[in-house]
Amino acid sequence: MLQVYTGKGKGKTTAAIGLAIRSLGAGHRVFFLQFMKSLAYSEQSVLKKFAPQLVLRTTGKPFFVAAEGMLSEAEKAQWGDNVVIFPPGQPPVDYVAMIDEEFKVAEEEILASPPELLVLDEVNVALFFGLIKQEAIEGLLQALPETTEVVCTGRNAPQWLLDRADLVTEMKEIRHYYTKGIEARKGIEN
Questions:
Q1: How many angstroms separate the CA atoms of 41 and 182, rounded?
Q2: Each residue of 108-122: pLDDT tens digit?
């Protein structure tokens, strides 16, 4: 089955982590591939402790990205030099090359010993920004055996992935404390 967790609400990665824990509890092997994330998130220290039953890989995050027109002037000012803004359809070449290289290594490892659960965390965002091509993800999905459950997380899931999915959950933001200026908190958001 292919599961997609998307939407603007909080909880997409958290839900995938919960499913990974449940899968481990059933004796399954899990491969957790995080797109656009460095090893700076609290859950990673715990997930790594489940090795070798759980393999955690990241594609790194040299910087935040946004397409032109996505951020208001106030948001641009808030991000400052911590975001790279690019013309739509023209993501930073170095970022694309890094993700492509790291994805190929992970894909080889995944296909050499397919897990029962594969989590592609934030892949929807990477696809949305054009940091990875649809063909790369489709190729992996087609190469996996039917015994591998796949979870794709992140905002802005592409329509082709939603159409292909067996389960789609949209996290809807009703209220979020970010709007009050509360930053990401260790152990809660990162």
A1: 18
A2: 999 999 999 999 999
This prediction's pTM: 0.91
User: What CATH homologous superfamily does 2-179 map to?
Assistant: P-loop containing nucleotide triphosphate hydrolases (3.40.50.300)
Give the separation between CA 171 and CA 174, rounded to whole angstroms: 9
Q: How many of the other CB atoms lie within 10 Å of CB of 158?
A: 17
Domain layout of the chain by residue ranges = 2-179
Q: pLDDT tens for residues 132-152?
A: 999 999 999 999 999 999 999
Tokens of 110: 């995944």
Q: Which two structure tokens, joined as six digits, stand for 8? A: 């603007």
What residues contact 63, with CB distance under 8 A and at least 6 apart? Answer: 82, 83, 84, 95
